[in-house]
Fold this protein.
Amino acid sequence: MAKTTGKKVTKSTQKIKPKERAVITVNGIDHSGIIAAITRALADLDVNIEDLSQTIVQGLFTMILIADITDHDLGKLQDKMAQVGKDQGVQITVQHENIFKYMHRV
């Protein structure tokens, strides 16, 4: 029989896993369906979108998206986004938030 400490497990005593996020950038010629394809692929992987900003300047589409990738495989997400980018004719880059911040620090 397993021994217990008799301590009640509460949220404050549970170890909380730190959130991991990915920065996804998209660039290319604007056309309908880009955002739909990307968000559909993320939903298929059960990846939550935390923030998204997109703009179109003279027919050029650009987007930056922050996704919660806690408990997800970054490599699998990168492969999926590469396929979506190929299908949509846009360039998609997926980086872990820590790498993105390190590369863009001043």
The beta strands are 21-29, 48-57, 60-68, 90-96. Helices lie at 34-44, 74-88, 97-103. Residues 30-103 form a domain with the Alpha-Beta Plaits fold (CATH 3.30.70.260).
